[in-house]
Write a structure and sequence with these properties.
Layout (H helix, E strand, L loop, with lengths): L1 H6 L3 E4 L8 H4 L4 E5 L16 E2 L3 E3 L9 E5 L4 E3 L10 E10 L8 E7 L4 E7 L2 E7 L7 E5 L10 E9 L5 E8 L2 E9 L5 H5 L7 E3 L14 E10 L5 H7 L12 E6 L5 E7 L6 E8 L4 E6 L6 E8 L2
Antiparallel strand pairs: 1-21, 2-16, 3-6, 4-5, 5-16, 6-15, 7-12, 7-16, 8-9, 8-15, 9-10, 10-11, 12-13, 13-14, 17-20, 18-19, 18-21
């Protein structure tokens, strides 16, 4: 009991009490969704009703930090039937870091999608290309699709951004695709327009999906396999310079100075560093820690405006 009490010393850290520069303060205006996937699924931009995380796994990010990116393993991961960001919106931008585990040679593997096989919008990888597809019930034809050249590589992190802008009165708009901050494709596509009545006629409701696409009756084979990180959605088309700046933002450098945690450890005992906002639900932060008998210390970057409590919990 004594060792557990020592190890579970709880450190309350309030972001408002420190000189924090939050990631959102560095981002362009118009932010709708901010998924950083730092060991949990949470839209930091605003509360997302009905958000679901099923069998969510996490992987190292592009810097090698453990559990800092969402790992898509080929099946449905994260979605919300109550939230959609493309539907009936004539201007938007989508951006994320992606690391493919394969190039999706047979079917598109969706980084992000909304809808179903009949009414949908997608940002995908297909045979190493970046693919964008959008459907509009009033456009002729209803579907629009565009692919870049083969730009994505297995095991390599790439920054992908898509911007879209349609003028009032038009069912089509300009879609721009960026790879690693460079514009690689510009084309005309319909905007995702779906009436409530038409959506209700289909088996699956319109909603957001991360890492897959509900195509027909199953997520397979329209699922992405690989890692996704720092997924951002805006309510307007970003400029080329804004897209380029997104690549320069490191969400691990948002607090100055960093907060230093200190815990006494027992030799040979394994621990998990964990955080909580309510002292009830705890989330792992980083990998396993082995006690040395001395003090364990670690700098922690606080990237949200909420209070967090920290503990070093023994692994039984």
């Amino acid at each position: 009991m004594k060792s557990r009490r020592l190890a579970q010393i709880i450190a309350p850290l309030f972001a408002a009490a420190i000189a924090a520069v939050d990631l959102q303060a560095q981002l362009p205006s118009g932010l709708l969704a901010d998924f950083r996937f730092a060991g949990f699924v949470h839209n930091a931009a605003r509360a997302t009703p009905g958000l679901e995380a099923k069998t969510a796994n996490f992987a190292p990010d592009r810097f090698g930090n453990p559990r800092e990116a969402l790992l898509a393993t080929g099946s449905g991961l994260v979605g919300s039937r109550n939230e959609d960001f493309f539907k009936n919106r004539k201007t938007w931008s989508w951006a994320a870091w992606v690391r493919p585990d394969n190039l999706s040679p047979s079917f598109p593997g969706n980084f992000y999608s909304e809808g179903n096989a009949g009414l949908s919008g997608h940002v995908s990888i297909y045979q190493g290309t970046i693919m964008v597809q959008l459907w509009n019930e009033a456009a002729v034809p209803n579907w629009g699709s565009v692919t870049t050249g083969a730009l994505l590589s297995v095991g390599t992190w790439s920054h992908v951004a898509v911007t879209f802008e349609a003028q009032e009165g038009s069912n089509v708009g300009t879609c721009l695709i960026y790879h690693d901050g460079i514009l690689v494709k510009s084309t005309q596509l319909p905007y995702l327009r779906v009436s409530g009545g038409l959506a209700a006629q289909h088996q699956f409701g319109i909603g957001m999906n991360v890492g897959y696409f509900v195509g027909g009756q199953t997520a397979y084979p329209y699922a992405f396999q690989g890692a996704i990180d720092e997924m951002l959605i805006f309510d307007r088309p970003l400029s080329a310079s804004e897209v380029s700046r997104l690549r320069q933002i490191d969400d691990h450098l948002t607090v100055s100075p960093a907060i230093e945690l200190h815990f006494q450890t027992i030799p040979g005992q394994n621990y998990r560093l964990q955080w909580s906002t309510d002292l009830k639900t705890w989330t792992d932060h980083g990998g396993m820690v082995t006690g040395t008998g001395g003090e364990f210390s670690a700098p922690v970057s606080i990237r949200t405006a909420e209070a967090r409590f920290w503990r070093l919990d023994p692994i039984q």
